[in-house]
Amino acid sequence: MVWKTCLLVADEATMAVLVQFTNTSGKAMTVKAKLAYVQASVEQTCPAPWGTSATITIPARGTRISPLDTCTAALTPIQAFQAKAWVAPHDGVQWAYREHSPTLHVQEASSPVWADQS
Known about the structure:
Elements: E1 2-9, E2 14-22, E3 29-39, E4 42-45, E5 54-58, E6 63-65, E7 72-74, E8 79-89, E9 98-100, E10 104-106, E11 113-114
Antiparallel strand pairs: 1-2, 2-6, 2-7, 3-4, 3-5, 3-8, 8-9, 8-10, 10-11
């Protein structure tokens, strides 16, 4: 199982927090995931179920992405955003490793800028 978290700029005022799962094995896999984001150095929780523990099954050699409306936020000028995702086995009892997206910097009166473009 390979997974990555990302931010998607949905329009000029909104972003979405997403996680993409790719199952490289020959059998379906079920995992649980939790999403959050950091805005101006403060962690923000996404709504349930993705902000607490969503269960998803990825078919053999398949890819799934969390729904676009899972977790959204307003793009606030002069702030930075970063998505966070935790993924664990569906029967796991503890969240362990987490992934962060690249940082998105929202400039005043301009389009959002990714950290490596600023």
